[in-house]
Structure formats: C-alpha cells, structure tokens
TrEMBL record:
PROSITE patterns (UniProt xref): NODB
Xref: SUPFAM superfamilies: Glycoside hydrolase/deacetylase
NodB homology domain: residues covered: 58-275
The keyword Signal is assigned to this record: yes
InterPro entries per the UniProt record, alphabetical: CBD-like_Golvesin-Xly (IPR033803), Glyco_hydro/deAcase_b/a-brl (IPR011330), NODB_dom (IPR002509), Polysacch_Deacetylase (IPR051398)
Species this protein is from: Sumerlaea chitinivorans
Pfam families: Golvesin_C (PF25275), Polysacc_deac_1 (PF01522)
Cellular localisation: Secreted
GO molecular function, one term: hydrolase activity, acting on carbon-nitrogen (but not peptide) bonds
Name recorded for this polypeptide: Rhs family protein
Main location: secreted
UniProt KW keywords: Signal
Length: 373
C-alpha cells in the first residue's frame, strides 16, 4: 500500500494563556523558512485536494484562531518579513472589541492584513459558541451571519472558510456550512490533511507553545529523508506526487535503496500508467534535475522521463539497471513561477520501471558523483 500524501495544517492562538510569545513564533517561522517549507492558502490546499493542482515544495498551512491583537501587532509583521502567509479565523461580533481574554483586531486592521496577502481573514462564527449546544436557527445564524459580516466589512472579500469554535460540530453544521457557501471548514483534530479528507472536516495540528523540536515532530519533519543538497526534492509519498492509476497498478517496494521509506514500481506497460512529480516553483531560475530509482535486475533499460520546463517538454531515456539507489542527472532547464515544474515517468518501457524521487537543484550549487544521461 502506498503511503498517502499529506499536508500539515497547523493551529495556534496569539494569546499568552495559550503559550504564545512573539519570540517563540519567530523561532517556529524561522525553522519553517530555513528548512524549505512554503506557506500556502486555503484556496491552494483545496485546489490540491479537488483538482490535483501542484503545491510548492514542503507545503504547510498556518492558521490562527480568535483574532487576538498580537496577530496584527506581532505575527503579521513577522510573516511579511519572511515572505510567508497565514489565516486568521475571527469571530465577528468581537472584531475590534476588548474582552476578558484580550483585545481583538478591528476591521481596518483585518483589511490591512488582507490587502498585504500575508494574513487572510476567515470565519470563526459570530460569537465563538459551541455549535453543538445551540438550536438549529442559532447555529445557522452563527455560521451564515459571520460570513455575511466579513463580506460586508471587508470590500471585495469572499469568505470561503470556517473554523468550528472549540472544534465542536456535527453533520448538521457541515450541511449548514455547505448551504452558506463555504468551500471548506476546519476542526481541531490533530491529524494531517489528505486528498481524501472530508472538505468540511479538515484537521489542524495544534502548535500552541510548541518548541521548535516539538514542531518538527508534529508536522512530520523528523520523518523526512535528508535533502541531498540545495533545492528541493519530491518523492513518491510527497503531496506533489500523482500516481495514475491511483490503485492496483503500482507496487510499493522498500528494497533497492529508496530515497524515503519506499518507492514505486510497475511492470512494463503501454504508457497509460505514470507517476508525475509536479510542484509550484517558488523562485524562477535554472535548475539541475535529478531522478532516483531503486536498484533491481529487472529494471527497464529505456525508462522514459518527460520534463516540463519553461522552454517546453524534454524527453530523457535512462537505463534503470544502472546507478540504482543514487541521484542521476537528467539535465538542466529553466523553470519559472508561471508554471509548475514537472517530471513524469511512464510505464512505457522494456522492463519494470521504478518511480522513487526527483531533485531540483539550483545551478548556483554543485553536486558530486552523479550520472549524466
């Protein structure tokens, strides 16, 4: 069984009683930035789930609940400085209101953050009440009313996402979210998000007060294979890896020195089955592209890789009976932010093909001991 591709969606509260401090969040953001993570929006997450739209390498969605004023005063500037983005789930009755738990951002502040693109505001209902304790009409007002308030007070904004207060909801509230026009809703279940995750039950991994070491474990960083050098890799378990057909044709193997926990193999076929690695390019430039396959005597001698780059599509044929379990240079091409970088391996070959991983290395860096095709 192939390991299912997953994306971490994390949650914290910018309030000291939850363990928040600006210095801690700065450490968390610096770790993500320095280790190749790229923040995404809910739209990007849902486009990946619904349409298999490529995400940037190591995608992560950062969310914050309750619209506490440090979101505006502290977190927003930190995100802007690092070129990162996040979501602020606000309960609309308390926008700009000081309560016992602290001050909350006002509509002008929310609009400033929205315009910058670094902090997007979405719904946390009107009054932050446990929806499961309310009547049907009350729950409907909380869900639909908050969406209406955000759209009325933030010109041009379409509110598409809701986070359930306290993570409390049932199937009735899922239906209410659908009918109100939300595209998805978020829970507080500590789990990863998969393509198959129900759209109105997207889990979020809590990172309130988490040290960098704890954050690494929670988001799965500690289980990732080490990068071979500069740039980014995509292996067969990456969210940016698509397998066609999705089940039955491709087998999982752990032998032959796979890059991560396993690799995929398939007997020779007609070309209708393939593995695609495709990611949104974060920085335009020339990249060396490497492929890795597992070693075995039945491998094809004419495995065909197709690389889609700024100049078009290039086909490279390789002998997978040689150099298994190592990185092999396919070539160097220009990739831009205008289109995803894509490598595709089909089953059209004279033997078993192995789909393990690809690596995009900026040309400014160097690597030794590769095989050029």
């Amino acid at each position: 069984m192939r390991t299912q591709a997953q994306v971490p969606v994390v949650l914290f509260h910018a309030q000291s009683s939850f363990g928040y401090s600006a210095s801690l969040v700065a450490q968390q953001l610096d770790f993500l930035k320095n280790n190749g993570y790229n923040t995404i929006t809910p739209d990007e997450l849902l486009d990946w789930m619904d349409y298999d739209t490529p995400l940037p390498p190591r995608p992560i969605l950062i969310t914050m609940d309750d619209n506490y004023i440090p979101v505006y005063d502290e977190v927003w500037p930190m995100l802007v400085a690092r070129g990162m983005k996040a979501v602020n789930f606000a309960h609309t009755t308390y926008v700009g209101v000081v309560t016992g738990s602290g001050d909350h951002g006002d509509w002008l502040e929310l609009q400033q953050m929205e315009t910058s693109g670094a902090v997007l505001t979405e719904s946390h209902t009107k009054n932050h009440l446990n929806l499961t304790t309310l009547s049907s009409s009350q729950a409907q007002d909380e869900i639909a009313g908050s969406k209406a308030a955000i759209e009325a007070n933030m010109p041009g904004k379409v509110c598409r996402y809701l986070a359930y207060p306290y993570g409390a909801y049932n199937s009735t509230h899922v239906t209410m979210c659908q009918n109100a026009g939300y595209r998805a809703a978020f829970t507080t279940v500590n789990a990863f998000t998969y393509r198959t995750t129900p759209r109105y039950e997207i889990p979020r991994i809590g990172i309130d007060g988490a040290s960098v070491a704890t954050l690494q474990t929670k988001i799965g960083y500690t289980s990732l294979p080490p990068l071979p050098g500069n740039g980014w890799t995509l292996d067969n378990t990456d969210p940016n890896c698509t397998v066609v057909p999705t089940s039955g044709a491709w087998s999982t193997v752990t032998t032959g020195s796979p890059y991560g926990v396993n690799a995929l193999t398939k007997a020779a076929g007609t070309g209708s089955a393939y593995v695609r690695w495709a990611a949104k390019v974060v920085q335009s430039g020339n990249y060396r592209v490497y492929a890795r396959w597992t070693a075995a005597p039945d491998r094809a001698t004419n495995a065909v890789y197709q690389i889609t780059h700024a100049g078009g599509v290039t086909t490279v044929t390789v002998n997978q009976q040689a150099n298994g379990g190592q990185w092999n240079l396919l070539g160097q091409w220009l990739f831009t932010t205008a289109q995803p970088a894509e490598v595709r391996l089909s089953d059209s070959a004279n033997g078993t093909v192995s789909a393990d991983a690809v690596w995009f290395e900026p040309v400014s860096s160097r690597v030794e001991n590769y095989e050029l095709y």
